Amino acid sequence: MTSTSSAWVGIVSLILFLGLMSGFWAGIVGLRNAKRGPAWWLMTIGVGLGTLGPILYAVGSWMLIQSMTASMSSTGTISPRPSDSSGVLMSGGLLVPAGMILFSIGFALHGFAAARMANRAEELEQLTAAMSEEINRLREGGPAA
Amino acid sequence: MAWMPTVLATSSLAFIIFRLLIFVAQWTGILALRRSSRGFPWILMIAGVSIGSLMVFWPFIADLLSFEMHLSWSYLPGLISTLGSMLFAVGFAIHGLRSARATERQAELELLVAAMAEDLQRLQGQGTGNRSHG
Asked: Does the global pTM surpass 0.80?
């Protein structure tokens, strides 16, 4: 019963993780065509670390279980310090918050850049409208004058 | 083990600073995006960030309301904040795909403005030419 429910938790977490990461990666890829400034790089590195973290965590857990079963079968006791796997586990666990911080800073910078871009787009729209009016006026009034 | 409380206090302080930093950065980004990305993706992103922010303060809120959660529901805050992140991710994906189109449109507008400026100069040159001839 317990193993079934923990398997379900694992499957649901995997689906949620894949859904989240595909959303973030789709956004990153969509924004790639815009100016690739430091904001984009920070967000990309953040999402990359956020993807790598859980994978390393899973690898670390697998290594931990492997080393535990190996020590169980060889000595009959669970070895107290499976050091390689705990290093992988630790780094996997630390990569996610580091990635979140980098992504958030990149997202804030991206917000400012997008606000500047929106201002420029508004200026361009106004400029185009004014210029087309001016051109029409010159074309109509030019020959008459 | 006298160092244990210090380590715990430092790590929880680091955790709070970490959450606050993310909170401030996300809200800064969302508020800065309100003009350029208004609409459905922005609403999804702000809903996601709001849920995430609420969940940051959830322990304090639960403490304040002296709300005790049954152990079998203890995964609920984690699940809700994951769903919040999900909403944010979907909004971010749509925003990214739309901003690709917006960038293309802006490049077109820049070209159009350059072409129109040239046209305008030519027409103005003709205008002054006509005037000087007449």
From this structure: no
Closest alpha carbon within chain B to A110: B29
Would you list the domain boundaries of chain B? 4-133
Across the interface, do B113 and A107 touch by the CB < 8 Å criterion?
no
Q: Do A142 and B126 touch (CB under 8 A)?
A: yes
Sign of CA dihedral A119, A120, A125, A130: positive
**Nearest to A85, CA basis, from A103, A110, A59, A105:** A59
Scanning every residue of chain A, which has its alpha carbon at the shortest distance from the alpha carbon of B33? A111
Closest CA to A142 of B71, B107, B49, B120: B120
Q: What is the DSSP letter of B73?
A: G
Which segments of chain A does DSSP mark as H helices, in order?
Answer: 2-31, 38-75, 83-144
Residue A144 pLDDT: 46
Q: What distance in Å separates residue A89's CA from the closest CA in chain B?
A: 18
Confidence (pLDDT) at B4: 58
What count of other Cβ atoms lies within 10 Å of the Cβ of residue A30? 20
> pLDDT by residue (tens digit) across A100-111?
999 999 999 999
Q: Which residue has the tokens 């953040």?
A: A46
For A118, nearest residue in chain B (alpha carbons): B36
What number of other Cβ atoms are within 10 A of residue B75's Cβ?
A: 12
Which of A86-90, A102-106, B77-81 has the lowest average pLDDT?
Answer: A86-90
Would the CB atoms of B86 and A19 count as touching at under 8 Å? Answer: yes
Cβ atoms < 10 Å from Cβ of A7:
10
Determine whether the interchain pair A120/B106 forms a contact, defined as Cβ–Cβ distance below 8 Å. yes
Contact A107 B26 (CB under 8 A): yes
